[in-house]
């Protein structure tokens, strides 16, 4: 995909997170701001949320909005594993948050993950369980388990990060209780407008019929301050905080109009929203679901890769029909669709392709595709190290060094290399050398 196409991707996040204001939009907080407690009505139900963070980190805020959105996206990318466990590199996390790979950003992102892991929430009557179609009382951390893995030579931080997301969140996502987030819009906004956009967008969605999204919204100033985690009860200060956010959202055309009426704590904000994020083609979603892809992942991939879903599904079916058994079936199907056309996966031998709708072999009309070497599909760490060493043979990267890296890192590097031009391969090689402390 082109960089422009990557910027047009639609992300997904659990509706509760933004609706309940679990992460403050404020970039900076007071050093002693380590807990908060609020009471309100959600869909007419009396609710209460208590947040207790570690004194060392304070409560979740600022960059945590970006990092937690990225974690939910990674969960969907990796096929929505039932146990909630995902693995990724720090480089990948920074990339998803639109940040440069620098020492300062790595330290900031590590602190964000530690803060999310150290903070305990108690949510009374306000958490929507989509599977149970009910409101529940729950207690959890946004990151239930956090593990950093690195070698003794790695002085810059973790090579591989493992995160376990809470069951309450992952179960909702697997059952489709999420809302879209526009990457193109996020790229136009700075913080705290990025986070405020997601809060306002969540409030547009009905918490029960969650796919219904209103074109207008009315909310009191004090209620919005609470949902945004603005640590003040002074209306003038809250207004000053929101004004540049409104300007940013109006300029990006997410908002068409903002009106403020009333005085003091009784001020009412009225919003008129711009263009809604388009929904994916239901036919493409169905194709993916037939291969056991969870609905949330199917909708996301259908929205992000509409031009490759049919052919990608056909290729995945063809490879599976040859007897290939991936360790992660859903992850394999999604990867074939996302990488279709860049040479990462080859078609089975013979002049036949698989029809995406029926999976019945039919003659090709666009010429014979390259013969594959299905047995050479890299599935183990050793295979990946051998493949990467071959691809980067001109960059001086040795197989023996690559063999030291965790499987997740090798998979990440492999997906970024195949089908890419030489200049992009050089960039990946430089990153690998940094990981290996060779440069």
Description:
This is Replication initiator protein A. InterPro entries: Replication_initiator_prot_A. It holds the Pfam family RPA. The chain is of the alpha+beta class and 439 residues long. It folds into two domains: 3-273, no CATH class; 282-435, no CATH class. Helix content is 41%, strand content 18%. The chain contains 18 helices and 14 strands. The protein has helices at residues 3-7, 15-19, 64-77, 90-96, 103-118, 167-174, 183-188, 193-204, 221-228, 235-251, 282-289, 295-304, 309-321, 329-339, 381-391, 399-402, 407-417, 422-435; strands at 10-14, 35-42, 45-52, 85-88, 120-129, 134-140, 145-149, 160-164, 178-182, 216-220, 255-261, 268-273, 352-354, 361-363. Strands 2-3-5-6 form a four-stranded antiparallel sheet. A hairpin with a 6-residue loop joins strand 11 and strand 12. Helix 11 packs across helix 12. It is globular, with a radius of gyration of 23 Å. The two termini are 29 Å apart.
Identify the overall geometry: globular
Overall average residue pLDDT:
82
- SSE-based structural type: alpha+beta
Helix content: 40-55%
Runs with pLDDT <50, length 5+? 1-7, 350-379
**How many domain units?**
2
Gyration radius from CA atoms, angstroms: 23 Å
Portion in beta strands? 15-25%
**N-C termini distance:** 29 Å
Protein name: Replication initiator protein A
Pfam family, one: RPA
Organism: Deinococcus oregonensis
InterPro entries: Replication_initiator_prot_A
Provide keyphrases for this structure.
Replication initiator protein A; alpha+beta; disordered N terminus; 439 residues; Replication_initiator_prot_A
């Amino acid at each position: 995909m082109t960089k422009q196409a990557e910027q047009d991707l639609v992300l997904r996040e659990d509706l509760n997170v933004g609706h309940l204001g679990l992460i403050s939009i404020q970039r900076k907080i007071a050093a002693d701001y380590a807990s908060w407690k609020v009471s309100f009505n959600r869909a007419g139900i009396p609710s209460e949320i208590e947040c207790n963070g570690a004194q060392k980190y304070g409560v979740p805020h600022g960059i945590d909005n970006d990092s937690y959105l990225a974690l939910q996206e990674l969960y969907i990318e990796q096929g929505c594993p039932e146990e909630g466990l995902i693995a990724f590199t720090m480089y990948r996390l920074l990339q998803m948050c639109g940040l440069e790979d620098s020492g300062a950003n790595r330290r900031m992102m590590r602190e964000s993950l530690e803060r999310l892991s150290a903070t305990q929430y108690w949510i009374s009557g306000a958490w929507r369980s989509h599977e149970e179609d009910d409101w529940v009382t729950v207690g959890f951390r946004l990151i239930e388990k956090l593990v950093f893995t690195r070698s003794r030579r790695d002085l810059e931080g973790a090579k591989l990060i493992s995160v376990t997301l809470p069951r309450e969140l992952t179960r909702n996502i697997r059952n489709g209780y999420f809302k879209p987030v526009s990457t193109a819009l996020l790229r136009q906004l700075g913080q705290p407008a990025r986070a405020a956009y997601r809060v306002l967008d969540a409030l547009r969605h009905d918490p029960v019929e969650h796919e219904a999204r209103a074109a207008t919204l009315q909310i009191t100033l004090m209620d919005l301050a609470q949902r945004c985690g603005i640590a003040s009860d002074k209306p003038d200060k809250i207004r000053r905080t929101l004004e540049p956010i409104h300007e940013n959202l109006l300029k990006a055309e997410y908002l068409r109009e903002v009106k403020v009426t009333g005085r003091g704590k009784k001020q009412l904000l009225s919003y008129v929203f711009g263009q809604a994020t388009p929904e994916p083609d239901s036919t493409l979603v169905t194709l993916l679901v037939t291969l056991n892809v969870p609905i949330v992942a199917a909708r996301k991939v259908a929205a992000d890769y509409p031009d490759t879903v049919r052919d990608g599904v056909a290729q995945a079916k063809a490879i599976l029909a040859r007897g290939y058994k991936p360790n992660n079936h859903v992850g394999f199907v999604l990867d074939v669709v996302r990488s279709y056309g860049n040479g990462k996966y080859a078609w089975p031998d013979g002049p036949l392709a698989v029809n995406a709708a029926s999976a019945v072999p039919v003659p090709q009309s666009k010429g014979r595709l390259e013969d594959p070497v299905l047995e050479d599909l890299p599935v183990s760490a050793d295979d990946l190290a051998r493949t990467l060493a071959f691809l980067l043979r001109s960059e001086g990267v040795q197989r023996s060094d690559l063999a030291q890296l965790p499987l997740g890192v090798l998979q990440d590097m492999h997906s970024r290399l195949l089908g890419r031009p030489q200049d992009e391969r050089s960039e990946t090689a430089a990153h690998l050398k940094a990981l290996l402390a060779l440069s």
